[in-house]
Here is the input.
Amino acid sequence: QSVSGYRVTSCSHAYYPLSSISYIGSVDDTIASRKYKGTTQMNLSELSFENNDPRFLNVTFDVTPGFVKVSPMNSLKVNVIGNVASYMYDTAEQSVTGFTMIESSASGLFDATKVVYTGDSTAAGVLVGQYSMGLVSDIANGKFMYDDSNFVNVKFVCSQDGLLTIVKRTGVVLTIKGAVDEVVYNSNAQKLTGYTWSSNFAGFLESDFTVVSNGSVRATMVGTYPLAVNNSVVSLNCDDRYENVELRFEEGSLTIKPAELVLRALDAEHEYDALPFTSAAYEVVSGLQAHDSVARIETAGYIFNKRAVQNSITHYEVLRRGDGQFMT
Here is the structure.
């Protein structure tokens, strides 16, 4: 705000011509300017003027400087708008902070740096849901103040509280894989059950699901047997945090490897009788299981004339006592 200039209000001599008064000061001295609350005077004094009429001596000037007075604005309205954010559930705490301020009264004098805020403009949470900053409450509790005496009444309002929204996570894949094991044949039935699991989301926990039933495999003979889990019943315990969890199943396996069986052909002697002679004498060195027995054996030793030949086992079969099956 500013005011400039001056005027002569009166003269003690009726015949003194006012045109004889000259202003000898600077132009700036005739201007009073002020932006904030208070009063500013012009820099005028009796030395700012002189008399140019030689008919009058000892002319004195009684000068009252002009001034500008700025009074406080009666009302200032500030709208507080909280920041908002939306995230997917991530198992960790997530947050949004801060707000913006807009002057609703449109005076153009609002200075955001003069706002003193003593609250905590943070909305934070972990689980699915909405979390507010509480800016409305902060205004009601006097946590917004305006440090400027140029305004008599500053009113804060909140048109939008700060808000954090955490939504259910999508795109999660849970993979159930049948157990995998390798064992050595021992003539007994081998059974495998169970599973392992994995997920493409690191935050997914084993407590987030329950396998109500899963597959199993039972076998005795040497070979590889699949453990199917695609008919497993899986109950999800995480509907409050995950949406449309995709279930995938992978086959497991039970592998029964051959046991090592060591047989040794025995030495044999025979009195010459002009007939060919063979011997199937043997002994079990190691590896024959408790329920099994050697049922058929063939050797390669063959003699006709008087001499010694090497006797070796060329073929054998093991008879399983439990089910009568032959194993080579």
User: Anything to note?
Assistant: The chain is about 0% helix and 45% strand. The chain has a mean pLDDT of 86.
